[in-house]
Amino acid sequence: MTQVSDPDQGGTIKDQAKKRRVVIPCWTEDEEAKELQKSYSKNKVRTTKYTFLSFIPKNLFEQLHRFANVYFLFLGALNFVPVVNAFQPEISIIPIILVMSVTAVKDLWEDQRRRRSDKKVNNRLCDVYDRKQKHYVERRWAEVCVGDLVRLCCNEIIPADMVLLHSSDPNGVCHIETANLDGETNLKQRQVVRELPQQGSEFIPESFSSRIECENPNNDLRRFRGFMEHPGKIRVGLHSENLLLRSCTVRNTETVIGIVVYAGHETKAMQNNSGPRYKRSKLERRLNVDVLWSVALLLLMCFVAAVGHGLWLNGLKDPIFMIPDDTPPALAAFYTFWTMIIVLQVLIPISLYVSIEIVKLGQIYFIQNDIDLYNPRFDTGVQCRALNITEDLGQIQYLFSDKTGTLTENRMLFRRCTVAGTEYPHCENAISLEQYEEQGCGDVDHSHTLRSRSSKKSLSCKSLSCNQSSVSLKTLTAESDTHSVLDTLRRRTLGAFSGTMECAVVPDPQLKGKLDTLCSPMHPSVRHEAAEISHILDFFLALAVCNTVVVSSATQPRHVVQMPVGRTPLRSLEDMKLLLQKLSLPRFPISPNQNTDSPSSLTKKLFTRGRSAMYFPNSASQTPITTQPLPNTPTCTPSDTPSTPSTPVLLRSGPCGDTKDAELAKGYDETDSDEDDDDEEDDLLYEAESPDEAALVQAAKAYGCTLLGRSPEQVLVAVPGAGPLSIPLLHVLPFHSARKRMSVVVRHPFTGDVMVYTKGADNVIMELAEGAKDGFSREVMERTQRHLDQYAREGLRTLCVAKKVLEEQEYKGWLKRHEYAETSIENREELLLESAERLETNLTLLGATGIVDRLQEEVPETIEALQEAGIKVWVLTGDKQETAINIAFACKLLRPTDQLLTANCDSKEACEARLYELQCEIRHFTNGGSSSHDMLEDDRSTSDFVLVIDGRTLDFALHNDLQEAFLDLTCCCRSVICCRSTPLQKSQVVRLVRDQLKVMTLAIGDGANDVSMIQMADVGIGISGQEGMQAVMSSDFAISRFKYLRKLILVHGHWCYSRLANMILYFFYKNVMYVNLLFWYQFFCGFSGSTMTNSWVLIFFNLLFTSVPPLVYGVLDKDVSAETLLDLPDLYKSGQKSQAYLPSTFWLTMLDAFYQSLVCFFIPYFAYAGSDIGVLSFGSPINGSALLIILLHQVIESRTLTWLHGALLLFSALFYYVFVLVFSVTCVTCNSPTNPFGIETKMMSEAPYYFVCGLTTVLALLPRILLRVICNSTCPYDLVKAQKIERLPPVDYCSSVKQWKESRAAGKLSTRNIPQNLSVNADNCITEAGAVVL
């Protein structure tokens, strides 16, 4: 809190509101402010696009943004012009009306769904304070306004963005669940604005008269800048911790009161509601080019017809069959040009765009309902958030992947640590982890019971979810007595990052023994230096308090931490021990079997008695118990754990000293069984925002430094030898991606000094601790660095922990500038960042931790399959280089025969030289010095080089003048691993590869730091993992595990691309083929624009008669089965090379359409030459032949023929013949001026009709069939070979697949020229001589 002058004095509130938002209570007397608040958005939301009156004009306006709709609407209007019309005007507008009507109905249906949802949301009720009635009244959400005071109860949804003014929690804390907003299920802690005049048990609305200034509405969920100005001109900064966001749910708090600052569409939730993502796929871009070619072809054909008509008129001299007309031939030719545009309009496939949308919806339906992509553990399947890029999944060439949470579980398990330069390997902990994985529990995080062989007691790790309301009644009732405890625990909802192994950590005996000296200060056999003990204690205190973990219990929503009674700080650990001994406090157990209650047991029992129970730690009013420990009694041994376990087991974690206080125990049930004490620490429920925090808090708990509770001002921690201590929490400097660390400022519980505890990335902390002057600190840093390198080689994630002791004057000086930064609205983030960096200097290194994050299941197989498919896999991670390399070997991204190329440079010049040097090394080892561009033309997957580059070098390589050299180098490598990369660098790398190499890219990640990379790629995939849903919300597709990427890309991606590509080509083919029939007829009618068929058949031929079969073909066709595509990933390369839709394929299809149209027109022409049949009679066999040719052409192109395909083909043919027959016998004046009455019935009653149709169909399709047979026999594609293989019996199929893979592997090995001494030992990740180019 700070008092500053008002910089805006002299200006009006309206002037201030231009850059900021001013909010005051709704009952204020300031008329100007009240008028301003009326201009703010109301809380009523409307996500619909249309109203009753605006639907038709607005929908028409939106549809006319499509070029195809404008084109056909123009042709329909053109047909109303008498001099150029080709047929009845009303018939010409049927296609565009039909297509736009279908689209309008679809839009209306979607809008009605949104309307019903809006109505449900707006009609929700909440309590709003009414000054006239002097109490809270129920109002609809739509009636809430900015400045209203809203009261909410537990489990109620927040109606608008509100600043928290009051909470029923004594510490002014409120918990919210943001699952509706960002998908994160762990609870977030929010706190009441500091220094409010009233902080009592009851909030009086009339007494609140403060004024709020905050930033204008924006979509940043993580940021809120503003201040609250009290009547005395005292300002208090407002942060995101003070803001309750709309759509979130109040949890674990009875009542909260807040003032609305953003309402309706100005709330952050609505600002982020952007709806589905729309991108333009590569195939669509290719389609647009071919549509332009079709337009050019149309214009050419119309120009030929216009010129031909002009020449034909010039050649006539007073013909008796023409009405005399004064129109000159040139003008008549001009009219004919536009007439032919109308006649040949079908050349542009109007129904293609609608058909593509329908087909993609069908493809998405089958992807989302694929049972192989369903995860029963999370009850989720694939989410398709982008509706129009499914085919891009079949053309991926580069895959960029995050590591943590994407390739790995993101379940951080504490493995080992180093403290004060001494490494503690935690061997028993490693054995326990191995035993756990051997039990098969790694794939699914079942929370089951493990037993200690020595103690024979269950070591159960219960659910750590404090969101008890999220467990459904169905789940609770299902846990009946008929099921085992294991089955029951498996069904329980786990807390965030809190599975079985996170809870159970086996302490290292050596480190545990040193820490136990706090429990037995007079033990004669244990003597350690005070400096080392101080480092160890500070190390575990930092792990326990330097986090944002929310603590709850199984029976109460959260622990209540009261302000402790003032006490004299202890100046040293020895003073603490002596004081504890003099006071004879029962800080240490009398014997291993003593029936005592630990601090966590006391707090658990207190909270089971109701909310009125309060715990006053370190209070002077506590009555000490005079029982003293026996002099020769072993100490610091948990009651359920033997002093020397015979077998490594999962040890129960907890404080080494148990406590029993007679006053606190008063009112407890003395009959509580020992089983309750066995579960005492399992009842501590931790809700962490990241897996690292959960793992470190559980590790500290295993050593007795148990986090018991948290409030905005205090942290309750049970410390070995001291019991529960209330540590004043002065400041929290949260983790920031730029700083790569987090810090807390506390007052030391023993010395009273102001302490800064910092944890973060090892390279950052080591740099901040380089200022150490004493020899002990320097020695600690050197040893710790060696241990860090060892951890990284083992594939462990490393974090460093440090501290800093602040003098009071130094702290006050920093605090003054920090409070200024907190109350600033402009540039607040920059000022807070500078403030944190000023504090985090000259740190003293305490130690480091090694955390294991094991691979997800089937990751190696997935990456191997993707690489066999020709996809280059890059890993972009923020981990250390050694850790990334180790994980790369484990997931088969690196092979034992690969040659590692490392680039670690300190300057741009060194980076340029290193890139050139590595290119020379590659040329030396490959193909006798061929260039990288030559390698680019070959199969890139045959390369045996893998580039490993760190973040600093990558920053240099991304400079404009080094980009080309960097890309040339990467093109020669099979894979690239970018270590220590920032989120910005990830997106820059993806953009560089995508734009410069012109390749199809896919990015996959699970966290907020992957969002920019996911959005930059052509296809973005989010994993709904442990770090919330930020990546999912920004992605095009969402999956729950990395292994599902294999089938999503190799199977569904291949199918979607091949289906859509072939369907588009088929649409072009059938339109061109049918339009050319009309064009050939112009040579025999003087290019007059006449047609040999009635206009109804002409319009409906492509719109109705031949449009349904391609839709089914585009949704259901399978060129190769899913099993074969998974067994032979090589088949995916056909999509990468766009074999199904090349420019040459398009023009060959056009030529085939021209040929078939020639056969379809001239065979009937020569068959009926010299006869007296009319024009419409001549067109009857042509239309019949064209229908059969087009339908059978699709049969030839289809790889899958089922009863559904056959039924639809038969239906299309019957539909055509039924229509023309009914039209022929009923219509007399439908096709003025001609009369089609009886024509079709007469033609179909004659045998030549069927002979002509049959002969025409055979001759038209024969070349395509012969060409297909010859190509598939002499030089078949891989897809054709695969189709032959999958028809074999199972035994022959397996042998053929094996032979296929062996031949491909032999072909790749023959192209390699890598010396035999270049290899890497993948077992221990230790490179042999010459394996890594350094």
From TrEMBL:
It comes from the Eukaryota. It is found in: Endoplasmic reticulum membrane; Membrane. Its main location: endoplasmic reticulum. Its EC number is 7.6.2.1. Residues 658-669 have a biased composition (Basic and acidic residues). Mg(2+) binds at D402, T404, D1006, D1010. Gene3D superfamilies: Calcium-transporting ATPase, cytoplasmic domain N (3.40.1110.10), Calcium-transporting ATPase, cytoplasmic transduction domain A (2.70.150.10), Calcium-transporting ATPase, transmembrane domain (1.20.1110.10), HAD superfamily/HAD-like (3.40.50.1000). ATP binds at D402, K403, T404, E693, F735, K759, R797, T877, G878, D879, R980, K986, N1009, D1010. The active site is at D402. GO terms for biological process: phospholipid translocation. It is a multi-pass membrane protein. One of its GO terms (molecular function) is ATP hydrolysis activity. Residues 633-648 have a biased composition (Low complexity). Belongs to the cation transport ATPase (P-type) (TC 3.A.3) family. Type IV subfamily. PANTHER family: PHOSPHOLIPID-TRANSPORTING ATPASE VD, PROBABLE PHOSPHOLIPID-TRANSPORTING ATPASE. This is Phospholipid-transporting ATPase. It comes from Triplophysa rosa. The lineage of its organism: Eukaryota, Metazoa, Chordata, Craniata, Vertebrata.
